[in-house]
Amino acid sequence: TFLCFQYMWKMIRSFNTSYYDELDPEVRDKIQHIVVMPTYKEPVELLIETMSSVSNQTIAHQIVFVVGMEEKTPMQAEKKRKIRERFGTAFKALVFAVHPSGVPGEIPGACSNRNYAARAAVKYMIMKGLLE
Q1: What is the tens place of the pLDDT at every residue in 52-98?
Q2: What would the 3-class secondary structure string for the chain be?
Q3: What is the edge-to-edge ordering of all strands in the sheet holding 33-39?
Q4: What pTM value is reported for the model?
Q5: How far apart, in whole angstroms, are the C-alpha atoms of residue 16 and residue 9?
Q6: What is the Cα–Cα distance from 126 to 9, expressed in whole angstroms?
């Protein structure tokens, strides 16, 4: 019974502890996040709503947000323009990755789009000197 109580106490404490605030500020400021949002035929309003939720986070300045589009995404230029207008400075970086269609050996779908977008984010971060 005591071990059960001890375990429950640790669990409850962990729910109420902000580990981010407990980190050394020097270490905390080095943490970066990559958020990948694959999209194909979703309306731009839905994308903006999703991105708004992420941009409202206290660590938005540490997020590299990647919008992974398929080459055949309808209204691609319009979606990019609206997203860039709304979130151009909301994140550490806003990256658009356009996944080419018909890559040999690749299964079309959200997973391949997500994979391509994540790789594009890392390349971008290396090019811009965001990775140490």
Answers
A1: 999 999 889 999 999 999 999 999 999 999 999 999 999 999 999 99
A2: CHHHHHHHHHHHHHHCCCHHHHCCHHHHCCCCEEEEEEECCCCHHHHHHHHHHHHCCCCHHHEEEEEEEECCCCCHHHHHHHHHHHHCCCCCEEEEEEECCCCCCCCCCHHHHHHHHHHHHHHHHHHCCCCC
A3: 33-39, 63-70, 93-99
A4: 0.79
A5: 11
A6: 43
